[in-house]
Amino acid sequence: MRAIAAHAAPAATSRRGPVHRARPRTARRWASRCPTARVRASGPDAAAARPADASPRSPATVHLVGAGPGGLDNLTVKALRLLRLCDAVVYDDLGGGEADILAETRPGAERISVGKRGGDARSWRQDDINETLVRLSADGLDVVRLKGGCPSVFSRAFEEMRALKDAGVPFELVPGVSSALAAPLAVATPLTEKARGRHFAVASGHECERLDFAAFAGVDTCVFLMAGKKIRVLCERLIAESGKRPAMPALIVRWACTDREEVFAGTLGDLADRTAGRELSPCVFVAGEVCADAAAERRLREEEEDD
Fold first, then answer.
1. Which of 177, 206, 224 is the last residue of a domain?
2. What is this structure's pTM?
C-alpha cells in the first residue's frame, strides 16, 4: 500500500487560539478497507524523501460523520473505524459523551472542539468551522468532522459540503443514528404503529415560530428536536393550528441514550405546566398516540413516587 509523505506545516491558529499539530509518527499506519481512508507517513525525514519536482499534495479527505445521540455505544462501526484512523477530529458538543468517543482516536491525533450553544457569543461561527476543515485537509490531514446524531438532520452539513466543494476538498458523508429516532425508542416508543402511527414528521423547535403548523394536521406523530425552550409554544400551536387534541399524549426525553436521561410525560394540554421551571435542553419532544403507553406508565410511576 502506498504511503503519502507529509511536509512540516507552519504553525496555525484558530479563533480560539493556536491549533496544535499532531506529533510526528515514524511508524507506517496501514489504511482500513474503507476506500476513502488515507495513509500518511510522517517524521523528520518524510519531506526530504519527496522528489524536488514532486507535484503539490492533494487535499486529504474530510468525513462528515454522525456520532449518534450520545456515547460510544451509539456509534456505527464505520464511524468508529474512521475515528481510529483519522489525523484530526473536529467535533460538536456531543452531550457529554465525547470523552469515551475521543478516547478511540489514535495518540497524536488533533482534537478540535467546535461545539455551539444557542446565545453563547463564544460559540464557533459556521464560517470558521468551514475554514478549519479546508485548512486541515490542505495540510494533508485526514479529518473526521464529528456531528451529533446524523449529518442528514439539522447539522449544517450542506454548508460544510459547499465549502469543501468550493475548495476542491474530497469528502464523504457517514450516516449516524438520529436522536429523532433514538430518543423515543429509549423510552419504548416506536414512532410508527399500524393503528396509531401511520406516519411521522420531524422538525426543529429552535425557530418554531416560522413553522406552518397547519401542515402537521394530518401527521399522526410529531417530533421536535432542539425543543427545550419552546415546549409551551409547541403544545399551544399543535392544539390551535394543527387541530391536535389537548389530551393527546406527549413525551419529553432529555439527554436521551445517556446515563443522564430524563423523561417527562403528559399531554399537549398539561405538559408545559408539568415541566415549568425545569431545564429541558437538550431534548426531543414527541406528540402522538404512539406515546400513550409510555406516557401512562411514566405518570403512574410518578404518582406512586408521590404517594
1. 177
2. 0.78
